[in-house]
Fold:
Amino acid sequence: MPRIAGIDIPNEKRIDIALTYIFGIGDKVAKDILKIAKVEPNIRTKNLTSDEFKAIQAAVETLPTEGELRKINRDNIETLKRIQTYRGSRHSMGLPVRGQRTRTNARTRKGKRKTIGAISKEAATQTETSAVKK
Structure:
């Protein structure tokens, strides 16, 4: 398996699809990289020549990918929190950031449901009796 930007890309896939295994490279950027490197997008990764592979590597190195891009994203979120923007406060509270409703959905950000509010009569009587005993 060839390695680009520290990631093993699959041999059997077309090179334009294989490049999307790298964090920060999607379909459009992969096609742009192949255009810069002058490589046909339909070639399988295992059929690349060493010159084509080096050209692709050189093009990928000009972009922020993997750890570098993750650090940039993390720093941007920390900046939002530090300057106390609305988006930063939503990140801090673990709520949706981009205007989604939170009354019913948003379980991915909010986590497992926590029941708050009224308790059953049985539980109320148990707490009353335990409070009286003390």
Observations:
- The longest strand covers residues 3-4.
- The helical segments are 15-18, 27-37, 50-61, 66-82, 86-93, 107-110, 121-133.
- The chain has seven helices and two strands.
